[in-house]
Structure formats: structure tokens, C-alpha cells
Design brief:
This protein is α+β, with helices and mostly antiparallel strands and 108 residues long. Helix content is 34%, strand content 14%.
């Protein structure tokens, strides 16, 4: 039996665990708006920082799906490269920013 400690007001806390998306297309539909909004700022960003936001689901295949989506956004002219950044474990990863076409509203 798992004991759950209620809040001080007596309500039971909801689970904060992020859910894994059922499939790639469902995951893309959930995370793409956040990535596009981040790209529209024109500032450099790292995909992993956006994808770890608590309201976004986990990728069905976390080893491959983020890279697949990054390549898709780049191929569609939504993002462009902006050097390199680091992951939490200090590995080098591609840094991105929104393309001029995205910022000017020519692609979505």
C-alpha cells in the first residue's frame, strides 16, 4: 500500500510525474508549439532545455525522437543552427535559433 500524505488543507496531491507520449506524432503535437514559440524569440536555445519543461510529455523514444524533431524543424526552415551548447552532463549539443523566415512570419 502506498501512503500519500495530504496537503495541509486535506486535499490529495496530484502526481507530478511526466507521462510518456503514446507515439511520435502525439509527442510532436504536444512539444512543437513550445519549440516554435522559443524559436520565434530569435534567441539561441537548446532543445533539451525546452523539452524538459514539466508540462510537456516525455518522448516515446528519448534517445532518437528529439533529434528527429530537431532535424525536421531545420529541414522545414523553422530553425537554424547557432553554434553549440552543453547538456547537463557537459556533452556538446547543437544550439538552435529561429530562422529569419519564422521570425518574419513566412513559415509556421
Amino acid at each position: 500500500m502506498n501512503a500519500v500524505q495530504p496537503h495541509l488543507d486535506g486535499t490529495i496531491p496530484t502526481s507530478r510525474a511526466r507521462q510518456r507520449a503514446a507515439d511520435y506524432d502525439t509527442w510532436v503535437a504536444a512539444v512543437r508549439p513550445d519549440l516554435i514559440a522559443e524559436a520565434k524569440t530569435g534567441k539561441p536555445f537548446l532543445f533539451w532545455q525546452v523539452l524538459r519543461r514539466p508540462h510537456l510529455p516525455l518522448a516515446p523514444d528519448p534517445a532518437h525522437d528529439p533529434g528527429r524533431l530537431a532535424a525536421s524543424l531545420h529541414r522545414d526552415g523553422i530553425t537554424r543552427t547557432a553554434g553549440y551548447g552543453k547538456t547537463r552532463d557537459r556533452s556538446a549539443v547543437q544550439r538552435w535559433r529561429g530562422s529569419r523566415a519564422l521570425i518574419e512570419g513566412r513559415v509556421a
